[in-house]
Amino acid sequence: MMMLWSDAIKSVAAQTLVECPDFEIKNFAAADLLSDILATSKEDFVILTGQTSPQAIRTAFAVGALGIIIVRGKQVIPEAINAARGYGIPMATTPLKMFEACATLGGLLWSSPSSKS
Length: 117
Known about the structure:
Strand order of the largest sheet: 2-7-6-5-4
Number of helices: 5
Distance between the termini: 8 Å
Oligomer: single chain
Radius of gyration: 13 Å
């Protein structure tokens, strides 16, 4: 089961804040508590969060997340965008609430053609 970053961004109507080449995603981790993200054992995943601080970017880097999607249409401060660029972590923001983004992305991930193999 996997999907492309570009498909994930489109499916949740996200605006890209930090560009990157396309890549494959195998999973998502969704939390507003950074300690919950630090406790994840997922691989090849993207974080969905409402946290917009540079600390959220450092957390993503620490756990090896492939990217970050900010939920609830929150504005991201320039320091966080610069941190994401510095760490090479793609970032986007969606107007969807956390649950809506999770349901949308989970549905696509589990129904993608590659999940049938």
